[in-house]
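Quick log. Single chain, no ligands specified.
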Amino acid sequence: MTKFLAVLSGLLLALAVGLVQPLAAIPVLIFAIAGWRWRTSAVCAVLTAVAVLTFTSTGALIAGAIGLVATTYLLNTATVSAPIGVVPTTIPSVAGALLFTAAAGAATLLPTGIAWLPIAAPIAVIILYALIIRGLTPNPPTS
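-> predicted structure:
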């Protein structure tokens, strides 16, 4: 089933890129087909899709949809050679992908006139991640 989902999501990634830029779908499709055997090619397919999004003027909805397909493709391709019982599309992984896509889409709707705000976003994400991880780890024993 995982191999089927990897093949399906690779084809959907090529189709989604083809809707944005038809000629760019060819290398994405080639990388996606090679990605079913070599995982490095799967990463190249996603990076090609990201490059297409970078150099074309697409909306947030299309970029979010391609990002979701790329996430699904990488999750399923990474676990094709995993032991039996490893399932990449769990409820937390799907919920996380959908939540972060929705948050990114909502962030594009906010009007802002502050030029330095996009620089602060990655820093805020790293700080929030560190605080969450710190809260999940047990306190080290004090000497």
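DSSP finds six helices and no strands in the chain.
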